[in-house]
Amino acid sequence: MKDSTIKKLEILAESAKYDVSCASSGTTRKNQNGGIGSARGWGICHSYTADGRCVSLLKIMLTNFCLYDCAYCVNRRSNDIERAAFSPKELAELTIEFYRRNYIEGLFLSSGIIKNADHTMERMIRVIKDLRTVHRFNGYIHMKTIPGASSELVYQAGLYADRLSVNLEIATEPNLKRLAPDKDHQSIYLPMRHIQQHMIENKEERQKFRHAPKFAAAGQSTQIIVGATDETDQQILQLTSKLYKRPSMKRVYYSGFVPVNSYDKRLPVVKDVPRIRENRLYQADWLLRFYHFNVDEIVNDDHQELDLDMDPKLSWAIRNPSYFPIDINRASYEKILRVPGIGVKSARLIVSARRHGRLNLDALKRIGVVLKRAQFFIICHEMHSFKLQEASADYIRLSLKEPSGLEQAQAKQAPKQLVMTL
Fold first, then answer.
1. I need a surface site. Which of 227, 228, 397, 404 has the fewest CB within 10 A?
2. Strands 54-55 and 47-48, bridge-based pairing
């Protein structure tokens, strides 16, 4: 590999690392005769799958030159940083070379804005079109859609990419305009609508013509920056809920604000990246998508911010003592799903297993129920009701409170990734 290519790779991979809106592909593509690679259903991302496999992708920018001057972005126009750009052919060949070396399994492609949105999109499309048609690459491709791009270019991108993303970045329009004067929500929502419309039309076309090409089979995603502005968790999750009502929206990602630029009076002075808040938003997002919660149950006018000391499911349970206790052997799946310490899989197993006999504590342990949490909220064959009242809420909160960073350090525990315990 040429030294110049390596240098570009170092610059543009570094420039791309703050975009978190890439994860599991959600699509499957088999290898075709004469082609290389495949897209597995469990996805391509910098992550570990449930069975322990580490999957990877080349996360890269076509260029970090940018016309925009967004306060929160390391690649903003006014920043004095090293700039670089790949040609579309160069980046396509680099992706294939990395795949052949078994470094990657797919591509996440983004770019700074050069000339205008359509010009940038055209160059990005050339990269993924070459991968599909010239190199016959069947692996996973995720491409950022540039705000303001035309419907036709969005359609072309979706013919070659598995997933398209358009990042909202800031949850409210006034704050977005303050930090990113070149952007507005209209220019961001427009390509989102284009993606959705093309997906609907493509589905209808494929019903008529079975061999019609798929459009963005893994849907679209977006990213919201957390902590750069004053939006409450309630505002962020209300926006998230609206986005998930779009049939094309598969994931909303939350990125704790990282102060990557020199002092800017438009941005807050932060000591630490809000990782715990970021994690709580992911947990709340999980409740919206898989646990049948609505936003007002998680956050509302009386509780506008998520509890940083405990996950939102436990916080909701403590605030709603009248809902409990839940009889594991009689309650519906939907009610069991709301018990802290019981996940989607465990709830299904409980409903299935109790058909063959009454469940006791040992059975719940084998199923995977976290009894340390669930014990306060359930009745089973061996357990009588623990009456959840205001007097006992503080005890439960103290018993199940997650240790702070200071407490973890004092206990000399190695730092661990925050887990989604619901």
1. 404
2. antiparallel
Please classify residue 263 by burial: count the beta carbons closer than 10 Å to its beta carbon, then call 0-12 exposed, 13-18 middle and 19+ buried: exposed
CA distances from 247 to 220, 251, 289 (A): 10, 11, 13
Q: Is 381 helix (H, G, I), strand (E, B) or coil?
A: coil
| Domain spans in the chain, listed from the N-terminal domain onward | 3-165+185-222, 312-410
DSSP string, 145-167: PPTT--HHHHHHHHHH-SEEE--
| Cα distance between residue 221 and residue 44, in whole Å | 14
Residue 45: is its pLDDT beyond 70?
no
Is the peptide bond prior to 325 cis by the omega test (within 30 degrees of 0)? yes
By C-alpha distance, which of 278, 194, 295, 188 is closest to 238?
295
- Structure-block tokens of residue 224: 């919201």
Residues 6+ apart with CB under 8 A from 330: none
The whole-number pLDDT of residue 30 equals 58
Instruction: Return the axis-axis angle of helices 233-244 and 275-290, rounded to nearest 10°.
Output: 40
For residue 422, the model assigns a pLDDT of 54
Handedness of CA 165, 169, 171, 175 (dihedral sign): negative
DSSP bridge pairs for 48: 54
